[in-house]
Amino acid sequence: DEIIDTTYIKNKDHLSNFGIRDKDLFDLAKQRLSPLSSNNKPFFLFLSTTDTHFPNGIYDKRMEQFIEPKSSELEFMIAATDYLIGDFLLFLKKNNFLDNTIVFIMPDHLKMGDPSIFEETEERMLYVITNAATKTISSYYDKTTYQIDLPKLILDGAEVKHNMTFFTDLISGSKKKFIQDNIYAITEINRAGLLMLNSDPLQVSKNHLTYKNDTARFIAHAGGKIEDKTYTNSLEALNYSYHKGFRLFELDIISTRDGHFVGAHDWNHWKKISQYQGVLPPTLEEFLQYKLHKTFTPLDMDRINNWFRTHKDAILVTDKINEPKLFSDQFIDSDRLMMELFSLDAIKEGISCGIKSSMASQNVVRENSVETLANLGVKDIAISYRIIEQDRNLFSKIKELGMRTFVFHVNLGYGDADEEYIVKCEMDHIYGLYADKWTFDNQ
Known about the structure:
The chain is of the alpha/beta class. It is built from 18 helices and 13 strands. Strands 5, 6, 7, 8, 9, 10, 11, 12 and 13 form a nine-stranded mixed β-sheet that branches. It has a two-stranded antiparallel ribbon with strand order 1-2. The termini are far apart.
């Protein structure tokens, strides 16, 4: 019974922020297998790779001797991990380990963030690869398998005799519906990630029923999710989110080649969802010619202003742009304008030109004390949810100073950080969140 992680490795070159590098992980596994197999006793070996982690992988120069150059570091490290897994399986076969050893290969979650690097992305699912005998796991072939089925599937595949009853055995009818209908209760028993925090395990807030319907706490992320599409920054996303009850709407604001503000996350992403084939960035005329996902209407300043003119209780929250005076002069109502800003100078400029809120971005918080920001008149802070577990004192201090924290990096598969979990367990520590798909009780 042993855990080999960052505390085990003395050579810091073999470490990343996530732990042991994948190359060293498989080398260690090979070293451990021979003594484990020689004692003729059953054993279990679990390996977790990290070098393909969000957002761009963790580049390992040593793999250049095995892998040809790729178009990105992420693609290179995906190829590297693929190579290492293949090499490890060949090692098992060469040394006859596969004669009486069952192997399972599976991911712990989908790729976090925008999946648009994959062509024609539709519904994505996790997978299980195994050499377990067909007869032991045949019952899983003709039905949808969920993550809650994995413990039983692994024991069945490994032919481990047991008398255990599993959570999955207690569900009758649709497992998908059961999980969706009972997500709060299931979250409470999923404590593994919480127990890793350097604090007491989180409890469900007594106020979460109030939080969940407070529209001032939810920002529709990039206009909000529509028809399973995120990051559209589209007219239809604004309309759909408004109908659902949102009143704060984030738009990513970037500039066209001829200097006009438009709503788009970045030009490469826009090119993919618009199927534009020309030079980037496009002109305003070119930008407006293309529907997003062949369906949704793109937003320029005229359309943004027209929409907020007819939705008088809506508030715009911007991302990407760091020019508060220039943008606020073009927006219909600076009293309904919140801008996430990325330098102290931009924050001072935003405060001086009288917009509703000059939100301090995460890098500004890192470079300046929150007391300094409060003294300047900063009311709101936009920061990654991931920072909560690293520095809870920071969030407490922000709250004590009367500022509001809105967290992003929600719904990316990072631990328990989906919208329901945040509202249920974290809202006592923060004020609100950037949400893709939140539904208020009145809908």
